[in-house]
Amino acid sequence: MSDWRRWHHEAVIVDGHMDTFYKELEEGRSWFRPQRKWHIDFARLRKSGTDLQICAIYTPPQFEGGAATVWASRMINRVFEAEKAAPRQIRVIRRRAELDLPAGVTGLLVSIEGGLPLDGKLDMLDWFHNTGVRAMGLTHNPRNLLADGASVKRARGLTAFGKAVVRRMDELHMVLDVAHLHLAGFKDAIRIARGPIVSSHTGLCRFHDRPRNLTDWQVKKIAETGGVIAIDYLTEHLTGGPKPASYRDVVDNIEAVAEMVGVDHAALGSDFDGYHSVTTGLEDVTGIPNITRELVRRGWGERDVKKVLGGNYLRVLRAVLA
Ligand SMILES: [Zn+2]
């Protein structure tokens, strides 16, 4: 076995963001069956070598109030049902100790994407935590009761409720995700949060300058918390197009993070099943080994490759989860 194949095989691979359970709920299909039009189904996730997959619970903006709570709850339930259907192969991670996965077990960690399902009520955060949710991003692209997302013009910082949520997430040992959050809210979040924070799926402004991507300053601030910047695989984030991005662009972004703030803060956050464009060499989840091979081709050593593939993300999860 070549070095890169062995390192890929040995590495604990962690991905910061997939939307496959959104697909499940939207289309009424199961990821246990082959789903060729999706980036991920369970068989291909296993084949990719992914050990721990963070599962996004995305609620579209047309859901308001209790309807958002119901939608998100149904999607979270699909994650638990997956664990129930394959208990020897899937473990939903709720506690730090559960991060030490037995061989052959895929870890899933539930992360709410955007605070709509809280419906403006702090005890709903506790409720979701009680069900097993261990991470949350405050917004999607629009404004909600917590903060403004990246697409909002003349954005404000966190609302009083948003600030209370960040403080309560600290107390509950939940991972704070700043992906999609507008810079204005980011500044508040970084000041209030105590633990390491993540951007679970993002590109960098130095490659494509847009509000959804992270500026160099934001990268430095996340690194200062001990957190990770997880690079996603969308052309519109990686390069801005027009030609499709490839796994090499993902590696360019990873290397830029490593150059700016050190290798300890770069990670993977595919956004698989959350977008429709095609990324060369990452057409689906089984393309992840191309990232490993490219890192090694560029001279990366074993330790650093394994950090980027999952070691860094795992460090953050260990630091935050109770
Ligand atoms: Zn997203």
Give a description of the structure.
With 322 residues, this protein is α/β, with parallel strands linked by helices. The chain has a single domain (3-319), classed as Alpha-Beta Barrel (TIM Barrel). 41% of the residues lie in helices and 14% in strands. The chain has helices spanning 3-10, 20-27, 42-48, 66-85, 122-131, 160-171, 183-192, 216-224, 235-238, 247-261, 288-297, 302-320, and strands at residues 13-18, 50-58, 90-92, 106-113, 133-137, 175-177, 198-202, 228-231, 266-268. The strands form two sheets. Strands 1, 2, 3, 4, 5 and 6 form a six-stranded parallel sheet that branches. A three-stranded parallel sheet has the order 7-8-9. Helix 10 (247-261) packs across helix 11 (288-297). The radius of gyration is 18 Å and the shape is globular. The mean pLDDT is 97. Bound molecules: zinc ion. The site of zinc ion has 6 residues, from loops. Zinc ion is lined by residues 113, 179-180, 201, 271, 274.
Give the beta-strand count.
9
Order of helices and strands: HEHHEHEEHEHEHEHEHHEHH
Q: Judging from the principal axes of the Cα atoms, what is the shape?
A: globular
CATH-defined superfamily: Metal-dependent hydrolases
Q: What is the C-alpha radius of gyration, as a whole number of Å?
A: 18 Å
Q: Give the percentage of residues in beta strands.
A: 5-15%
Q: Just name the CATH architecture.
A: Alpha-Beta Barrel
pLDDT under 50 segments (min length 5)? Answer: none
| Bound ligands, each once | zinc ion
Q: Give the N-terminus to C-terminus distance in angstroms.
A: 38 Å
**If you consult CATH, what is the topology?**
TIM Barrel
Q: Class, according to the CATH hierarchy?
A: Alpha Beta
Helical content class: 40-55%
Q: What profile does the largest beta sheet have? A: 6 strands, parallel
Domains counted in the coordinates: how many?
1
What's the mean pLDDT score?
A: 97
The number of helical segments is: 12
